[in-house]
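A.,

Following up on our hallway conversation. Structure tokens first:
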């Protein structure tokens, strides 16, 4: 009888762990983004995405003129932020415009840092506002003059 309890005591945690992995919440599954560049200039995009450790800024995702790029990203919930800028056209950016839009720190070189980190290493560090959106799958079409 004692041996049965011992075996059951070992099996129950393993069974529960298997159920947690099997029925993983939708928030932890990959999000799909398509970045479409309808401008005649290269496009750079930064994403603000949730994770179990907090919000993170990822960039740059480069998209050539008149083309697109697909991104799969493991993320937390369905809400995320985006900031895009057309190379060579500093006045042409897609960003948040409301007072509630979160400010993210960006630099010119590749970045991956915590949202709370307002001083990431890199050149030309600045704060910009991210455009917040919701969805597990999203298509962004960037166009401009």
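Then the amino acids I'd put at each of the 145 positions:
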């Amino acid at each position: 009888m004692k041996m049965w309890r011992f075996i059951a005591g070992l099996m129950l945690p393993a069974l529960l762990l298997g159920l947690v992995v099997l029925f993983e919440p939708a928030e932890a599954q990959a999000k799909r983004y398509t970045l479409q560049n309808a401008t005649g200039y290269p496009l750079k995009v930064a994403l603000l995405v949730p994770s179990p450790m907090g919000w993170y800024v990822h960039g740059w995702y480069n998209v050539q003129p008149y083309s697109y790029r697909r991104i799969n990203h493991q993320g937390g919930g369905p809400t995320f932020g985006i900031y895009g800028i057309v190379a060579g056209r500093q006045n042409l950016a897609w960003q948040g415009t409301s007072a509630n839009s979160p400010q993210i720190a960006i630099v010119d070189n590749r970045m991956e840092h915590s949202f709370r980190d307002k001083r990431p290493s890199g050149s030309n560090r600045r704060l910009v506002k991210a455009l917040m959106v919701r969805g597990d799958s999203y298509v962004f079409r960037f166009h401009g003059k």
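Confidence is low (pLDDT under 50) at residues 6-27. Curious whether your intuition agrees with the design.

B.
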